[in-house]
Amino acid sequence: MKKSEQKYIGIGIVAIFLIAWFGGYLAQYGLPSPLTWQIGTGGGTYIPTDVDKDNYKLGIGRWNVFETVVDSLDIATAQTSATNYTLYWYSRQGVNWLYHETGNDKYVTLTPEDGGYLWIVMKIPSGQTKYIDYQKIMEMNQYVTQYLYTDVDGDGVKDFAFRFDMKGHAIPNSGYPSITFMGFLLTYDASFTGLNDLGNSTGIGTSTVTKFYSYYLSFATAKTGVAIWKVEVKITTTDETKVRLKNLEVPGLGFLDVSSFDKLYTSTDYRYVYTISKNFDGALYLKYPANANNRFDMTLSLEYTLAGSDSILITTTVYYLVAQTEAGATKTDSFYAKET
Questions:
Q1: Which CATH number fits the domain 194-338, given the four candidates 3.30.420, 2.60.40, 1.10.3470, 3.30.450?
Q2: pLDDT at 45
Q3: For the chain, what is the largest distance between any 2 Cα atoms, rounded to a whole number of angstroms?
Q4: Which one is predicted more confidently, 11 or 297?
């Protein structure tokens, strides 16, 4: 190929690029047409073309993104970015996560490959006593259509990621369109009181009989919560004919029949175990709002057929997850069930 031919090909490529750029066809890739700029004190104001507006309707283009994060049980209390939480803006193409920005009042550019969705990933920094209230987030954000609990950035820790539908938003005549993500955090009760203390159950006799025990959960501090992941009733005997679980009331779940429980055995006891979820996703977030009754009933029902002089230790345990770390913690109470 002659040098002159190469020159003309190069000029042609440049010309095609300039036509596409000035025509607004590259706006979806973060290159708005210079014809849409208006010169001002800040260097120019973006004016979307008709092509840009059509793209925005599909969730394609450059967006100004905002975050507002508050306490779930005290919405007047704003949470502090990079202290109580950190929020990241991503898009997702297949299984690949594409990072855009961190924090509030940022700009992100979405392409057709992003499918019209922006993903918001929330993390709780080390040492913070906060849960991400993902259920409240799903409830309060009309454009959040899905969430995942997954390891987005490959650090070995799962995070909540929320899919934000970027289609159908208002498009201004001047400037970039914007969206706002509403985040909610739940303050963890690090001094959770847990179960009340029951005395021994005596005089049960030797006939088959059902007894009810008025357990309840309570908190140390209002406007807090705990993420319960498992409950267990342990019977310290190996003779299953003596004590049988009938049901256990769990706040927020109601009365759980014995058929809902798994039964585990050791050399000294057998246990009825109900697992809600082993991590933050799906755990039972028990909340204690302000000016609410600090009593969450957890009635236990047991059926006895005791022999003479039987004295059997019954232990009820509530397992919950420590905020931010997802480490396990427990609250427990025991009493003796006695024939006499």
A1: 2.60.40
A2: 87
A3: 110
A4: 297
